[in-house]
């Protein structure tokens, strides 16, 4: 199965790329620059493509990002500290981001004769991001079947959609994913901040998986308190 | 119903913008530059926005268009002459174009608090473009419901999806659409060529609607033979 992986350079999608390279025919990585403040992650996607020996497209969606205003990931709103599952993380939602990235990836897959597009959406994202839920990915795949009918047959591969981030760490470790060469922090500083939602979630996932976290955090202990305080899901 | 219209500057979408301005609350036009050779159409979208007194966004999707290779609308492949419904028109398919443009428009609508996105897909496009068929638009609307769940409620307005281009001419005339200020030709020359699929379809639509066509064509009589020779649908 010739598969294109949507790879942000984060822990989840880099692990996914390694998993697809092991189990399927990885034919390329696609990344998106939508003006995110953590653009640094794109360097880690490029490193991943080099390591796995596949082409890498970084598609410039900044003109699109400019119309999707109101999100902390692209605007001047501060990225909040705390656990990812909290309601405060709603400011990090970029409306329709996954749907937009997926339709572009499906267009590229159709143009290049790929059989599948893989995305690392996972259960831990369900709380706040509707476009990471199984109901979305299933509806998306059904829509694409109609959109490309008669021209291409591209499936959507979402191996993590019913799993959590700790499962991804476990699976990533099995595929020898070099976790130190992945980027999660939404703040995009020199090191991972350790305080934003995605840093807390990352640190917690390694803890739950029982795998050593090689990440250098500016505030390495913040996650314990943030995790203790999170709202029940 | 606050509605954003996807407007290419063509006859269909300009008529739709006039219809929405009459019947609903038109809040803006969105156009896409995906590297189409008939970029001239965008000037007519801008004129339409001016005329109707609404904001106009032209979103630069050229970096996306660059990965969607193999279509006569963006590449160096020649645009074929003949009737739009013929199999030769398949080279004008840009894979997933409508799905991509619609997801971006839905993101913008969600960010801006609009209630609906309107698109002028119509029955005459069903032969060759799968992403203009009712099965696609219905699946797309269902996907968007999931993608924006809890954040926004944006519906998809497709008043022409079960109608043909002649019906659009009839409806456009009722809304006082200035047809001479719309652009259809895929070749993007000084005047409409009169020979490409979309010119033939345009000329035929005015004929079927019994409404005078104000368009200046380089080859005004080609459509008669092309229409006579077309394959049965």
TrEMBL record, chains A, B:
Q: Enumerate the cofactors the protein uses.
A: Zn(2+)
Give the superkingdom in one word: Bacteria
**EC number from the UniProt entry:** 6.3.4.20
Catalysis performed (reactions): 7-carboxy-7-carbaguanine + NH4(+) + 2 ATP = 7-cyano-7-carbaguanine + 2 AMP + 2 diphosphate + 2 H(+)
The residues the record assigns to binding ATP are 7-17
InterPro entries registered for this protein in UniProt: QueC (IPR018317), Rossmann-like_a/b/a_fold (IPR014729)
The pathway that the record names for this protein is:
Purine metabolism; 7-cyano-7-deazaguanine biosynthesis
Q: Which residues bind Zn(2+)?
A: 185, 193, 196, 199
Cofactor comment text: Binds 1 zinc ion per subunit.
Q: Which SUPFAM superfamilies match?
A: Adenine nucleotide alpha hydrolases-like
Which controlled-vocabulary keywords does the entry list?
ATP-binding, Ligase, Metal-binding, Nucleotide-binding, Queuosine biosynthesis, Zinc
Q: Which residues form a coiled coil?
A: none
The record's section on PANTHER family has:
7-CYANO-7-DEAZAGUANINE SYNTHASE
Free-text function comment from the UniProt entry: Catalyzes the ATP-dependent conversion of 7-carboxy-7-deazaguanine (CDG) to 7-cyano-7-deazaguanine (preQ(0)).
Q: Identify the HAMAP family for this entry.
A: QueC
Protein's UniProt name: 7-cyano-7-deazaguanine synthase
Q: What organism is recorded for this protein?
A: Ruegeria haliotis
**Gene that this polypeptide is encoded by:** queC
């Amino acid at each position: 199965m010739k598969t294109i992986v949507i790879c942000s350079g984060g822990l989840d999608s880099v692990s996914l790329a390694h998993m697809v390279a092991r189990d399927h025919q990885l034919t390329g990585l696609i990344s998106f620059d939508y003006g995110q403040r953590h653009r640094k992650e794109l360097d880690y996607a490029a490193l991943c493509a080099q390591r796995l020996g596949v082409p890498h497209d970084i598609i410039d969606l900044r003109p699109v990002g400019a119309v999707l205003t109101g999100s902390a990931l692209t605007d001047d709103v501060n990225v909040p500290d705390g656990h990812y599952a909290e309601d405060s993380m709603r400011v990090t939602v970029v409306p329709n981001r996954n749907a937009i990235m997926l339709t572009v990836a499906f267009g590229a897959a159709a143009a290049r004769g790929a059989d599948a597009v893989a995305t690392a959406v996972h259960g831990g994202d369900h709380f706040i991001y509707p476009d990471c839920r199984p109901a979305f990915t299933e509806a998306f795949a059904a829509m694409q079947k109609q959109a490309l009918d008669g021209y291409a047959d591209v499936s959507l591969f979402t191996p993590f959609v019913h799993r959590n981030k700790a499962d991804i760490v476990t699976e990533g470790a099995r595929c020898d994913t070099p976790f130190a060469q992945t980027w999660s922090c939404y703040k995009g500083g020199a090191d991972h901040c350790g305080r934003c939602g995605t840093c807390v979630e990352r640190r917690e996932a390694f803890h739950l998986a029982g795998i050593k976290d090689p990440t250098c955090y500016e505030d390495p202990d913040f996650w314990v308190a943030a995790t203790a305080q999170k709202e029940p899901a």
